[in-house]
Amino acid sequence: MRIDSHQHFWKYDADRDQWITEDMAVLRRDFMPEDLVPLLERNSIEGCIAVQTDQSEGETEFLLDLASRFSAIRGVVGWVNLRSPNVHKSLKKYSECRKFRGVRHIVQSEPDDRFMVREDFVNGIAALQDHGLTYDILVYPHQLPAAIELVSRFPSQPFVLDHIAKPSIRTGKQNGWIGQLRELSQSKDVYCKVSGLVTEADWQSWTASDIFPYLDVVFEAFGCDRVMFGSDWPVCLLAGTYDRVLSLVRDYTSGFSHADLDAFFGLNAARFYGV
């Protein structure tokens, strides 16, 4: 089974999607399953995990509606307000949808470096356990200490780190990223997505040699049984086509065993998200 563990859909709205700045104009249009499915089929990828980009329950419902109509969408990582006293009610409602597999909050945009260990947010993570749901960690390297503290409180909660915590491949400044990534990986219920790497490099001139050293760190820390491929389509289009992103990781893993390739390109994601 081949699964793309991380991609997005949206109907572009200039007011809502202000994160798409002028230098990201290629993203200022709709991206829907009809656009992605041919790319998956051409690359023998059987399904994908749709991940939220907007922090609203309307976004969750939008993705679940798409998932109900397109079999290629194997699971949805949506958004609910984890800080709400009514979080259990929201999680119960969405958990009735078979393809609702987890939750993400865009912590990278939070000004408080310790946002993830605030009491109300921690209570929301505890609620995820009660409903058997995963959590996608989206942070920058300077927010990793809080992520490490959070996962240490929930040793049986499934977590996955998005975009390897977005180190600045463009500048090469790691700011403690290697040590903190290794520390996070010590929690055995934490996985890592090899996704979003080309957009952390120079969009116009990145090469495999810029990115492979970061992959070395990830695979050494997590091993092949806790790392999963994600395209980050369509955001990846800022720096490369779907095929180019896929070719990058295929080249890196060309010497892997068949078992490790199967794990990285699908089985780990299937196990983690339960799809």
Domain tally: 1
Number of strands: 8
Q: Helix- and strand-based class?
A: alpha/beta
Strand content: 5-15%
CATH topology: TIM Barrel
Q: Which radius of gyration do the C-alpha atoms yield?
A: 17 Å
Architecture blueprint of SSEs:
Blueprint: E1 3-7, H1 33-42, E2 47-51, H2 57-69, E3 73-78, H3 87-95, E4 100-105, H4 119-130, E5 134-137, H5 144-153, E6 159-161, H6 177-185, E7 190-194, H7 208-222, E8 227-229, H8 242-252, H9 258-273
Parallel strand pairs: 1-2, 2-3, 3-4, 4-5, 5-6, 6-7, 7-8
Helix pairs in contact: 5-6, 6-7
Could you please describe the fold and organization of this structure?
This protein is α/β, with parallel strands linked by helices and 275 residues long. It has one domain: TIM Barrel (Alpha-Beta Barrel), CATH 3.20.20. It has helices at 33-42, 57-69, 87-95, 119-130, 144-153, 177-185, 208-222, 242-252, 258-273, and strands spanning 3-7, 47-51, 73-78, 100-105, 134-137, 159-161, 190-194, 227-229. The protein has an eight-stranded parallel sheet with strand order 1-2-3-4-5-6-7-8, sandwiched between helices. Helix 4 (119-130) links the parallel strand 4 and strand 5. The relative contact order is 0.14. The model has no long low-confidence stretch (mean pLDDT 97).
Task: Based on the model shown, name its key terms.
single chain, 275 residues, alpha/beta, TIM Barrel, eight-stranded parallel sheet
Short description:
The chain has 275 residues and is an alpha/beta fold. It has a single domain, classed as Metal-dependent hydrolases (TIM Barrel). The chain has helices spanning 33-42, 57-69, 87-95, 119-130, 144-153, 177-185, 208-222, 242-252, 258-273, and strands at residues 3-7, 47-51, 73-78, 100-105, 134-137, 159-161, 190-194, 227-229.
